[in-house]
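Bumping my old thread because nobody answered last time. Still need a sequence for this structure:
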């Protein structure tokens, strides 16, 4: 089972194609991820030929003018972005030596078989594959935990995926709210889906975040996210297929810190004075005599005030006390008590 620390979310750095086809850079990304404090680093396991075919008709090209990859053929894009399979066991072992969990996203049956052979501990299902029920079935039968992104999927499609996973042996499923746009906008992120999804599918939930910055990820914690996935690179200036919406190391450190802070701050429903607040009680407002008074003098708005500190009677008794007489001489700065009354 994928175990989460009760005091922190599970944070995943997504390498994707940001290695720019350099094993040395990929190793450095793993090392940098470990230094940020994330829990895991995730790879992707495919080749251009397992993703698509090399064809030059329009449907095999990205034509959206707003896309980061406009004009690229799918085949060429995947050739640029894929992580060579002969690197992956090296990256797994390197990550493990640094205290990171390393796992991957498979995209077909051959990649699942390959990842099983190198001991992949968790499987990620990408948004674009969440409707590929034969793939879901294959992954579920490994018995490993599954983390699945929900981008583009309808409730009915998610239900198909969840049922398929559970019926084929998956006992540990986490769904990540995801907007499959690169980058995604805050307005299109719809974090309020997260608690609804948790209740609807009775599973752990989180966020696969393609927005710029860390705000959406931190906010998702307050809505029940226990897993955060964010793309990661050494430097956006170095380029790379996903670099434009990836975090750099200092940003990832900030994400880890602030997500952990948000997670800890959730606490529990509590209306009582907490232990750490008890020392502050003395600085609440309370009722004080603010002028010297003689026995028999009447309490008025001039000589009785609600001020700090909190050693006197509570301010709620102010109206009750006005017009009452003191039973003794009282010095200015005395906390008001019942025994001062006649």
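Sorry it took so long. Here it is:
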């Amino acid at each position: 089972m994928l175990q989460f620390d009760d005091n922190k979310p599970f944070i995943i750095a997504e390498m994707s194609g940001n290695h720019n086809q350099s094993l040395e850079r990929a190793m450095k990304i793993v090392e940098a991820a470990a230094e940020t404090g994330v829990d895991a680093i995730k790879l992707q396991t495919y080749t251009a030929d397992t993703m698509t075919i090399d064809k030059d008709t329009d449907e095999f090209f990205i034509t959206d003018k707003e896309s980061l990859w406009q004009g690229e053929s799918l085949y060429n894009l995947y050739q640029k972005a894929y992580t060579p399979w002969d690197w992956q066991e090296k990256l797994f072992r390197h990550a493990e030596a640094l205290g990171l969990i390393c796992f991957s996203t498979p995209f077909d049956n051959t990649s699942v078989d390959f990842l099983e052979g190198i001991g992949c501990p968790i499987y990620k299902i990408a948004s674009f594959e969440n409707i590929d029920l034969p793939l879901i079935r294959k992954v579920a039968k490994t018995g490993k935990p599954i983390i699945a992104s929900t981008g583009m999927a309808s409730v009915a499609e998610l239900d198909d995926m969840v049922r398929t996973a559970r019926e084929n042996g998956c006992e540990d499923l986490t769904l990540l709210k995801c907007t499959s746009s690169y980058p995604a906008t805050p307005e299109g992120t719809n974090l309020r889906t997260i608690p609804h999804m948790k209740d609807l599918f009775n599973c752990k939930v989180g966020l696969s975040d393609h927005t710029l910055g860390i705000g959406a990820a931190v906010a998702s914690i307050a809505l029940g996210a226990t897993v955060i996935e964010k793309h990661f690179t050494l430097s956006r200036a170095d380029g790379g297929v996903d670099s434009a919406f990836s975090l750099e190391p200092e940003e990832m450190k900030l994400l880890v810190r602030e997500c952990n802070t948000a997670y800890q701050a959730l606490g529990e429903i509590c209306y009582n004075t907490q232990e750490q607040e008890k020392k502050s009680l003395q600085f609440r407002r309370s009722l004080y005599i603010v002028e010297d008074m003689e026995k028999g003098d009447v309490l008025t708005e001039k000589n009785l005030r609600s001020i700090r500190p909190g050693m006197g009677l509570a301010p709620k008794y102010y109206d009750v006390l006005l017009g009452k007489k003191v039973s003794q001489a009282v010095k200015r700065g005395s906390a008001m008590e019942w025994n001062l009354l006649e």
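The domain at 10-46+82-266 is CATH 3.20.20.70 (TIM Barrel). Let me know if any region looks off to you.
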